[in-house]
């Protein structure tokens, strides 16, 4: 594998056509693909058909995805293989971006550390765009009848905000860190399938313009759950929206397989399963759960597209279908997805807890058991999103049972964190702040979830701002806090510099206080009776909405401060050295910047990375 | 023994826990009912009661977490420079873990039993309905039809102290039929009927709000419920022209 040739300082001679392909050629080929699809569709399809617009839009979206992936070179290596040739070693080294400087971030590069950094950028784009739409929504809701944007645009903002944030949070921890850190944590030289790794990243990139584009071609105006049959009333924006999700599910499936294979098969000598860092375990569980959940996402969007473009009626009652099928498929994905999002964040925070309390992780095995329990249960609770739909009232009791059982493994997560910081020497650096903020918020998100699991109470609270506040406490207060903790924790490994502590602290307090202000008052709006997805509202909800909007601006200010900190610290931050936190997992044992292929000699592991305060027996 | 000492719970933490729990319990008892809408049915009364009871039950659990958090931030914070020294190597604590698991299981079972009992009560009320009102949602208006009459209206009129079943459907997309003050909600789906029952117990005017996004004017798909005395209801019914 790693030979002397690799270590020699020269740019590999291989690469072939890949030498000329990058993000720009991808974008150009994508646009060309869309235009070709448009041209072909106009000529081949019946322009008088009712479904014509949707057919043309769908084909254009497909043209974009295929063109983009071709143009960036995602299919070059498989193409070579299919034509009976194979990649040479030099080709692979060229793909890994050897000796290419920052240009390697703009192309189909297979080095897992490059992919990790690319995921950071993509996450920032997704969360940034979703955040801007959130500001649009909250600005609209400052006063009862405010129409900052027209009602139709407001409705479109809801769904695209939701989906941008969902996609952004799915990749927020798993994308950057399961790529950058996980292979090093298990003692590997790269992911199990480096080319698939780059493929998952660029497939995700291909999905983003579709999602944003859906705002401009006829609004997708029914919220992120894309309930049928109202989805059939939407403009062609829905087609791009659905295609974007379909593309995204391909990306996560590819990434998930890669993560699991890496963690299971690429471990170095001595890295037994009971020494595996908890973040690796969490990423593996999340990836596995994603493999279960996201095919439902693919199917529900695919069937909906079929209803719209070829006139099937899977989800329309007038044609013999049922909207309940759509809701079931959607939530079969939708609830496991919450844990696909949550688990990597929890994994990163548990690493932080141990390192910054200078103590072993408390109840390592119980924590793994709890994560397994969360995965298993999360597949069995989907219909709690449907208690008030009228579908299968007899199943209310069983779904209430499975849903409430989730509070037991969730409680274990709290126990593990509390046990880990118990009597530790808490090092109050940025990652620790985000961890403590997570604990404070997640308890609120967790307890309010129990209210909603109780059917008689859900009959009152379902579909109100209470639900919105509940899952924002989970997604913003918990997952985003985990993602930002992970960013502060691993930033020195990526850049060799600390994330600016002062700006970081300012952003922490703005986001933390902003979260409480926004979502505590949103709980009040919901309890007083304000339904969600309302563009205007009754006077009694006036004050709580105004307060929520102020809090939302605080969160935005905090996130912008953090963005400033990231940009500033990337080049000009305080140098950190290879192991600034004196941590013990393998990613901190390699030099910074991490060399290509990570380890000169693969390490032999003799203990788990949580041996704080313990005498090490050296072998 | 430092090992033994590190496992004892500091008294100040217990004080903190008691304080936070008390605050949580008092808050649950007073703030929750104050925030919820007026109560116009027994279903809603039980809903609010559930929220209060769940909050009270959650207070000691949240109290543990916040007490450890606050105590830890103040007392376990490392105040020196650079990397802190290692803390005690506590890898597990069987009794504490067991206690936590048993405690959360018992609480969960309690919540579940409570919820199932209430659910059975709700379903029982549906079986004993004294009258049925047909509810139809369409973009973006609610229509109500009354049993045994030709009467239709866009505001809902119901008699007090009568078990009413709503038979709910939609003419176009999915809507959500919700009366906030009565604690009932069910979706209006095109092509099928769903039902929900309630006995209003207070004369007055309440709200109907749509809770499933149904297009452009979703936010204004609201109307009123008038709960009348039984005689007033009859009188209202007799005054209505039969719709065609």
CATH topology of the largest domain in chain A: Cytochrome C Oxidase, Chain A
Number of helices of chain A: 21
CATH architecture verdict of the largest domain in chain A = Up-down Bundle
Derived from helix and strand composition plus strand pairing, the structural class of chain A reads mainly alpha
Approximately what portion of the residues of chain B adopt beta-strand conformation? 15-25%
Q: CATH homologous superfamily of the largest domain in chain B - what is it?
A: Cupredoxins -  blue copper proteins
As a whole number of angstroms, the C-alpha radius of gyration of chain A is 24 Å
Measure the end-to-end span of chain B. 88 Å
- Which topology of the largest domain in chain B does CATH recognise? Immunoglobulin-like
- Return residue spans of chain B where pLDDT drops below 50 for at least 5 consecutive residues: none
So what's the CATH class of the largest domain in chain B?
Mainly Beta
Uncertain runs of chain A are 1-9
User: What is the helix content of chain A?
Assistant: 55-70%
Task: Give the number of DSSP strands of chain A.
Answer: 0
Q: In terms of quaternary structure, what is this?
A: heterodimer
User: How confident overall, as mean pLDDT of chain B?
Assistant: 92
Q: CATH superfamily of the largest domain in chain A, please?
A: Cytochrome c oxidase-like, subunit I domain
Helix amount of chain B, in percent? Answer: 40-55%
The largest contact between protein chains, plus residue counts on each side, is: A-B, 88 and 89 residues
Q: Assign an overall shape of chain B.
A: elongated
The number of domains of chain B: 2
